[in-house]
What we know:
By secondary structure, the chain is mostly helical. Helices cover about 60% and strands about 0% of the residues.
Amino acid sequence: CSSDLSEKPLRDVTADELKYARIYYIAGFFCLPMVWMLVVMNWWRFRKSNTENGKKMRTYVMRSLVGCVIWAVALVIWCVVYQFTWEKVPFFRAIQMMSPEGIGWQ
């Protein structure tokens, strides 16, 4: 008995599921990449479906996965750059609420 969702028998993707996957996929472009993660988690098992709706669902799932990975890489890069250069870049110092020197918003 495997707990892998991809092992379960596939049923056809319903029109409602496809509609919601499309809405969530579009919502991910509005700086909501966690919604892309929801698309991947909810509909991952349909990525192998060969029906017409299944192929459309596969498109939303795989594109959401790519978008989520790109966003995560960009976030890690931002954190690393910020941590190593916050003292040297005036913009980074300006966006801090509290700095180690005790100079906060005044």
